[in-house]
Amino acid sequence: MWLKLRFDDLRLIIHYVGMFIVGMGLIMVVPFLTGVLYGEYDAALDFLAGMGVVCAVGTLLVNVYTRPENVNHMHALAITAFGWLAASMAAAVPLALSANYATYLDALFDALSGLTTSGLTVVVDLDHMANAHNMWRHLTHLIGGQGIIVAALSLAVGLRGGAFSLYLAEGRDERILPNVLHTVRFIWYVTAVYVVLGTVALFGVMLYLGMDPSRGILHAFWIAVAAYDTGGFGPQSLNAMYYHSFLFEAVSVFLMVAGTLNFNLHAHVWKGNRSELWRNLEVRVLAFNILALSVLTAIGLSATRAFNGPFAAVRKGAYHILSAHTGTGHQTIFSSQWLTDFGGPAFVAVLIAMAAGGAVSSTAGGIKALRLGLIGRSVIQQVKEALAPKSAFMRARYHHMGERFLTPEIGAAAATVFILYIVTYVTGALIGAAYGHDAGSALFESISATANVGLSTGITSASMPAGLKIVYIVQMWAGRLEFIAVLVLVAQLILAVRPQRGRRAA
Amino acid sequence: MRWIVTDLVPPPGCGKLAMRPHRLQSPFRYWRSGLIVEILAIGLFIATVFLTMAVLVRVL
Prior knowledge:
heterodimer; A: about 500 residues; mainly alpha; globular; B: about 60 residues; 1 helix
C-alpha cells in the first residue's frame, strides 16, 4: 500500500511552491537596484517586469490553498522537487528578457545551473552582460548554495509545520542545532562571514590588478559568492583565467575549500571542538582523495609537459583538482585544453575529483566524501568479519561529529546514493556520445552536470542541441537533490497514472 | 524519576543569587578562534597540495 498524493495534497504542494516563487520575485529587488545604481535602466526594467510576472504567478499559486496543514515527509519531498524547478523557471524570466540568451530554455539552463551551484553556462556574449543580470546570476548561487528551502526557512516564510522534513528533503543530512530555524540561520551566518572575508580579500586583489573600484567591488563579491558556494559562474567569458593572477587563484581556491566543508563541521569548530577538524572521517577522506588525485595529476602533467614550466603546471594542476573536488568549476584553461594538455592520468584525476565531490551538508555536490568513507569502512568491516571466527561479534565505528556505529543500514544508504550517481554519470555520458561527442568529453560533461561542478570541455554552449540541454538540466536538478526527492516525484506520477491493483470489476 | 528544572526553584543550599536570571551564552562563543583555526588549516592544506605536486613535477 503506497501513499498517493490526493487532490488536497497537490493544493498544499502548489501553495508552498507558490511561496518559493514569490520569494524569488522579491529577491529580484537586488539586481533591480544594481541596474539603477549603475545606470543600466534597460536591465533594471527586465527585473521590474520579471518581479511583476513572477510575483503575480506566485501569488496565484499561494492562493490555491489558503489553510495549509502541516507538511509531512511525502509533501516535503514533492515540494522540494517541484520547488527547485519552479524557482528556476522564475529565476529564468529576467534572464530571458536580456539579450544574452537565445531562448527561454537557455535562460532556464543558466538559472537552474546557478541555483544548483553547477556553473555550466549557455550565455551569449557574457563580456557585455549588464551588471544587473550578472548580479542575478551570482545571486542564484547564493540562494541555491544554501538551499531554496533553507532560504525560505531562514525567513520562516509561512512554513508552519514540517520544517525539518523540508530541510532534509533538500539533500541535507543533519541538523546543527536542536531547532531547525536556528540551524538554517547558522548556515547563513557562516556563509556571511566567509563571503564578507572573501569579498574584502578579492577586492584588494582587484585593486592590486588595477581594476576600477566600482567594477572591482562587483567582481570581488561575485567571485567570493561563486567560490564559497562552489558555483563556478564568473562575470567574464574566460572565467577565472580572465584575472591571470596567482593571488586571485590563491584567495578563490581558499574559499572553494571553505565552502566544500560541512556546515556542521564549522559549527563544531566554532563551538570550540577543534579536534573535529582532523578526527572527522569526512575531512580525512576529502584530504586523502585530494592529495592522491594531486599525485595522479602531477604524473599526468609531467607526461604532457604542455604548460610553460613546472610552476605553471603545478599552478594549473592544483587549481583544477581543488576546483573539481570542491564542486566549484572555476577554470583557468580553455575548454579545449582538457583533452590535450590535461590528457591521460591528469584527465582521469579530474574526472574522479568531480565525481567524488565535497562534504555532506555543504554547498558542494557529487557523491560526497562521507559516503565514500562509509562505503570504504563497510568493505573493510566485511573483510574483517570474513576473517574472524563465527562466534566473534564485531561492530565498526567512525568519527563524524562524535563516535558513531556503522550499521548495515547506514552502509546500504551510502551505497544506494553512490550507485544512483554512477548510473546517472554513465547514462548522461551515453546520451552525450549519442549526440556525436567523443566518450571522454561526454563523460566529463555528464559528471560535471550531475555533480554540480561546472567544468566544461566545450560541449555546453548556446549551440548545443535542445535535447542535450534538457538532459543536463535534469542531471543538475536530480544531482542537487541527491535523487530521492526526484525519484519520489517520478514514483508519484507513475502511481497517479497506473490503475490500482486489486480492484475487481463489478 | 524525572527532574523538571525551573528558574523559580533555587537548587538546595543556594540563596537568592541562584534564582537571578542570567543571559544564555551563545554555543558559538569561540567562533573567532574557530574561524582562525579553520583559515590556518585550509591554508596549510592548500600549501601541502601545492608542494606535493611541485615536488612530483620536479622529480618526474
